[in-house]
Amino acid sequence: MVQSKSTRMLRILFAWAVVLLFMFPLYYWITVAFKDAREIFDSPPNVWSFSPTMKNFEQVFGISFGFEQQQEVLPGGGNFYMAPRLWDSIVVALLSTALAVAISTIAAYALSRMGFRGRHHFVAWVLSTRMMPPVAVAIPMFFIYQDLGLMDTYTGIILIHALMNLPLAVLLLKSFFDDIPQEIDESAIIDGASRWLIFRRVILPMAKGGIAATAVLCFIFSWTEFLFVLTLTQTGLKTVPVVSSSFVTSTGTAWGNMAALGAAAIVPAFIFILLVQKQLVRGLTLGSLKQ
Amino acid sequence: MSVAVMRLRRMVSSDHPLPWLSPLIAMLVVFTIYPLFYNIWLSFHEYATFKRRLVYVGWENWSMLIQDERFWESLIVTFTYFIVVLAIELVLGMVLALLLDSDGPGFGLLRALLTLTLVVPPAITGMMFLLMQDPEFGVLSYLLELLGVLDSTTPILATSSLALFGVMLADIWQWTPFMVLIFLAGLRSLPPEPYEAAMLDGASAFQTFRRITLPLMSKVIAVAILIRGIDLFRVFDYVFVMTSGGPGTSTYTLSLYAWQQTFSFIKWGYGATLSLVTLAIILIIANLFIWRAKVRW
Questions:
Q1: What distance in Å separates residue A94's CA from the closest CA in chain B?
Q2: Quick count: other Cβ atoms within 10 Å of Cβ A91?
Q3: I need a labelling partner for B19 at 20 to 30 A (CA). Which of A195, A215, B90, B240 fits?
Q4: Chain B partners within 8 Å of A42 (Cβ)
Q5: What would the pLDDT profile of B200-227 be if each residue is shown by its tens digit?
């Protein structure tokens, strides 16, 4: 559409204003991570002028940036060393992503390429499992995991996170596979290739981008998941979102430490999502863009 | 070779869909079908504190549900949350997507920045907004006080008429960009011809949006509503960390109520009953929507 120069400028200005408004809570949260406890409780809130400190990060990650260490009483007398929890998060997110992507890739291939009776109903059923509220899964799983000894274990959390991601991963990957023309499979079959060979040698390389995007989405959902970890772990492992609530103590909330952990936890997920943004966004329309 | 053996051999070859689908089916059966039946079984039992085990109680949990005022309250809270947040995220998401649908300088960066909100764990988003809405040192409360909207005598999250909106704010902040990104993918793939025709006919920008963009985007919008709608109805993280259902019962959603009944009050049977009702409502609404909006995949 033809736009005059001034409307175009106005649009750019307005777009920046809105996006910066959305970024403000994050900016503020990051400043809290660098603030001293006193400055966090400043009234009116201190948005621009504060003296940054690395203390919160040092306490949370147990590393020293060479600043003077001061002994101080932490709220709740708590131990805020959270580096092992970051490791828990990474292990759970990576392994559950690998499992979910492996299972959903092969299933999505069959759903995209093989015609069989009830295929449409099967896809609908897969989607409907996503409608199950996490709490409806967590309650019975609490008992089942106790019986099986999976409570409070990596295996248990990895399995449940993989499950949680399966429906969306299958639908995403199916829409990516649907984008690859059927003729490629058909000509390979005429040449005598088996389905498995076609899948490995032709479809997988062609759908690389889509698979990466799906993996990133699974990673983020596992990385940010709260209810299952809250319910199905006790002391053995805890992921970042759940452990964040341990900064809320009976003698006050350690906002600075919480923000430091939260800010650090955003970084890996953000890098991943930037790498696959285009494919991910197209995939999330679940193939509804095709006319 | 007998027919049965040949059929069996075909079923385990890579030409048959079964080997491809069996890991998925196994996972879904173990982790959703089995829990579903376990929940149904649980809903007819209740933990007896003195006997220290589950005892059969018949339909007691279900009749309790119907008479439970707090269940009906949480149903209303969940529906309010679901409708208000979905509407705001849809409209705001569409407006922002139209605004950002440009190849001008810097727009790629703006779109990338917006994805930042999506990678913040919802529990941490909840904490973020909890801090910002703190009546004494929260930056949002301060801003609202400056604007004269609210003063520190009415803390947002501790006032029962406002608390739910305080929670909604976190959800809207986090997930509006998700809508924006989906809508942008749709907008960017629209065919140019109808727009050229509309311009020749001298249609206004609003008419073009109403008569061309919306109908062409209807499928994308339907998918966005479906994905977000399901998540909104199961909302748990934000209310859990921000208000734990309070003040009073003003922010108790169904998921939170079911979780608390189960794990805080050790009413396993009743918690299972509540979670089953939540599931049933989502299934009904979502399938009605899929059917009415003709969502296909």
A1: 15
A2: 15
A3: A215
A4: 137
A5: 888 888 888 888 899 989 988 998 999 9
- Whether residue A195 has pLDDT greater than 70: yes
Task: Indicate if ipTM > 0.95.
Answer: no
| Residue B47: strand pairing partners | B54
Helix (H, G, I), strand (E, B) or coil at A258: helix
Q: Find chain A residues with C-beta within 8 A of B93's C-beta.
A: none
Averaged confidence pLDDT in chain B: 89
Mean pLDDT confidence for A273-291: 76
Q: Do B123 and A244 touch (CB under 8 A)?
A: yes
In single-letter form, the type of residue at position B151 comes to D
* Chain A with chain B: Cβ pairs closer than 8 A: 283
Phi, psi of A191 (to 5 degrees): -75, 0
A127-141, B69-83, B107-121 — which one is most confidently predicted on average?
B69-83
By the 8 A CB rule, do A266 and B116 touch?
yes
B107 contact residues in A (CB cutoff 8 A): 15
CA distance A137 to chain B (A): 6
- Cross-chain residue pair A277–B112, CB shorter than 8 Å: yes
Nearest CA in chain B to A197: B14
Question: Rounded CA gap, A27 and A34, in Å?
Answer: 11
Q: Tens of pLDDT along B242-280?
A: 988 878 888 999 999 999 999 988 889 999 999 999 999
